[in-house]
Specification:
Nucleotidyltransferase, domain 5; alpha/beta; single chain
Length: about 150
Amino acid sequence: MMAGAMPTYPCIFCAKSRHRLSHRSVPPPVSGLAPSAGSARTAIPVFIGRVSPVLDTCTQLGILDLGRNQEIVRRTIPVKGKSIFERADEIKKLGVGVIICGAVSDAFYNLLKESDIDLVCGITGDIKEVIEAYRNGTLAHARFRMPGSG
């Protein structure tokens, strides 16, 4: 299955997300991982080696870039913003175009979307496995779905 055709799942925190997410497709991982080609980065909120359960309160972001030989280079940075407005601005300044996350509030979701940042919500799992599944187009597998997200 191609990542561009990957279904997304509504976030348990977003009342309107079932409608919003069912009508959009997720950008393919190559465009999300190739900032050198003019594309944006991909980010994943991190908590103890796993996808952080709530984007709004995460303290670290894993930033993914495409390195030599098409390998993914990952670095983890602290999230400094206290409010969702500060966090959205911080994420935008990092050049993030896609966020793979668990739950996200409706307000934060809307702020990020206004900044043209795509979200793949309702995802859970080990960071390394989620990155590999995203890269291979298999993130739609049921084992990566957050309970209550679809």
